[in-house]
Amino acid sequence: MSAQQRHFGGDRSRLELYRDLVYGDTGSLPGFLGFELYSLFLTGLGGALGFAGRGLALPRFLRSSGGALNIGRGVTIRQPGRVSLGRKVILDDYSVIDYRSTGKESVGGITLDDHVLVGRNSLIVAKGGTIHLKRAVNISSCCRIATQSSVEIDESVLIAAYVYIGPGNHQIDDLSRPIIEQEMDVRGGVKIGANSWIGAHSTILDGVRIGRDVIIGAHSLVRDDIPDRAIAVGTPARVIRYRGETSNV
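^ that's the sequence the OP posted. Answer follows.
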């Protein structure tokens, strides 16, 4: 079933559909109304007043917060009751933290540990799954991290601009249905080890495990596991050497 079918199916009112998409089922009606006021008056407010107001008000709606949040202008957070932000998290202007219910009991969520930075126009999307960005992960602008299972990025990982992590593929063999309506081929999520660097415009497919201290070259397509300390480049990515060793290339 496609996202459109899940969202617009049945006989729910437009208000119920909106509340399910934006606020979810983890809070009360007063909480939903409060989050509406936050979105209306603070999300787009510029200057120091908007910056301070968002940092003070947003923790009231989150699953948990470590405080001292730095929330830019135009940041979108959907289903805040499924989102946990650590201390001194930075969400730059127009970034998106988006948890989406899948029509079944949802137990996942999005967790950003202390000092995580999400760059401008980047999207973190969990479709009923779990995303965990550990301490001091740095995500540059215009990235997309999305999953229907899990993404775990260990501490101090650097992710350059325009990186796509976690995309799955639709099954394609049932010609009687459009591809968008066929089930996803979910392969167990993505895990990236600590202190790694993912180069610009790279794609890391669902099911991949990347070790710690790894470098993925720009414009690479990673579809297989990469071991610790490896430098991998290309489409598909292959290991060309290991950090700390002399290059023979």
